[in-house]
Amino acid sequence: MADHPKDDATPRHAASGSQRTALVVSLICAAQFVLQLDFSIVNVALPSIQRELGMPAAELQWIVTGYALAFGSLLLAGGRLADLLGRRQVLAAGLALFGIASLACGLAQWPVMLIVARLVQGAAGAMASPAALSLLTTTNEEGSARNRALAMWQATTAAGATAGIVAGGLLTQYLGWRAVFLINPPVIAIMLALVPRLPAAKRSGSRGGVDVRGALLVTTGIAALIFGLSSGQQHGFTAPATLLALALAVLLSTGFVFAEKRSAAPMLPLSILAEPARRAAIAAMLLIGAILAGYVYFASLYLQKVLGFSPVVTGLALVPSTATVVLVSTLGTRRLLARFSIRGLLLAGLASMGAGQLWLTQITAGAGYPAAVLPGLVLTAAGVGLAMPTASIAITSGVRAGDQGLAGALFTTGQQTGAAVGLAVLATAAAATSGHSGSLVDGYRLSFLITTGLAVLAAIIVALQLSSKPQRVEAEDQHADPDGSPAAPTAAQLGEK
């Protein structure tokens, strides 16, 4: 009889845990949706912003570039801060700062005010995104629960990107460009009201504090790279500012590696990269990021400049690809992971992405959307739905709880850096080809051919590296939990399952 209360409490405890997990997944996916939305929602509003604020073209591009530069360069630092200071606290701070910056964007009266506010938005996103992803991975145990949560994360990422194009057009057309930014604060306020209900994970003291030198080196190095690539795309890769920025990126990145090797409390412990399987997954994410940025960018340009679609119709034309990513991620990938290896699913996803990009190389000036564009979009999207959640599992698997923020930042940084590098290279190649032949379509076809090659290269890397044996030091030293509990399976072990 004495045991009955305990038995009755067990279902209630399980139900409470299930509800808390559902809240974590829902809130974090909503935060990711908003962050991803702001990457694309502003693009449609740029002409209206330029007219009202009188911005020259050279300044206008910084509304987009400034956000991407701050976000991409600060992700690793944001991920480490989440591990050290508490993920819930850093998520709340990032969301609050994002809401304030969005308000400043919507109320901006001068170009410099808008650009600075966009930089702050990007920095806030770099705090919130890795904190959110690490909360997702630490709340859900490795296996089917985490696979399902990561699939939903990737689905909301894809949905946010496409919704931004459609919502940006609608808001700008009917409410004005300021509504693009002013829609964020009320949504952020609702999220902040729910944040205290998230689990408050213990702070990680294993690294002894913030590695300020490493954070500065990696942040300025990535910022220099993104700035150099953006400058190269705008002014040419032989321009002095471009060459200086790219040289500085190489110098700072080299200095970061040497500094981390000598640091007693490194921001990015190099042992986390010792496992070939994790390196392969990060390399795949760099290439996938380039493919994603390129195919959405050039498909949008083709639909508008060649087929004559309006911005809103272009966004609607991309909805099937978003729906495909959502369905494959949430309904397909998590079930397939229970039957097939990470290596197999990554290769299948990359093969589908490559096939989709190859299909798009056949576009012509007189082609129609249903036959020339839609199959390529859907094939690519199906590959994204398979590859992205699988890559996120490969990168975060086996990483101890105290480093999950950093692991999430590695995943997102790989995607964002790949997108910046890929888009700069693809845009330059497409512009050169179009200028030489006088045909926009020739340039777009070349970009899709290059992304096809990137998918093949990523598949080769995955095929070779994900069959490697895990490093013993990684399994024993890097992934052992502080309480002495057994280490989680490594990515290589999962890849060979």
From TrEMBL:
Lineage top rank: taxon: Bacteria
CDD domains assigned to the protein according to its UniProt record, in alphabetical order: MFS_MMR_MDR_like
Keyword Transmembrane helix applies: yes
Keyword Transport listed: yes
Region (Disordered): 471-497
InterPro entries (alphabetical): MFS, MFS_dom, MFS_trans_sf, Sugar_transporter_CS
Membrane topology value: Multi-pass membrane protein
Domain Major facilitator superfamily (MFS) profile span(s) in chain numbering: 24-470
Compartments it resides in: Cell membrane
Basic and acidic residues bias: start-end ranges: 471-482
Annotated transmembrane regions: 21-40, 60-78, 90-110, 116-138, 150-171, 177-198, 210-231, 237-259, 280-303, 309-328, 340-360, 372-395, 407-432, 444-464
Main location: membrane
Keywords linked to the UniProt accession: Antibiotic resistance, Cell membrane, Membrane, Transmembrane, Transmembrane helix, Transport
Pfam families xref list: MFS_1
Record protein name field: MFS transporter
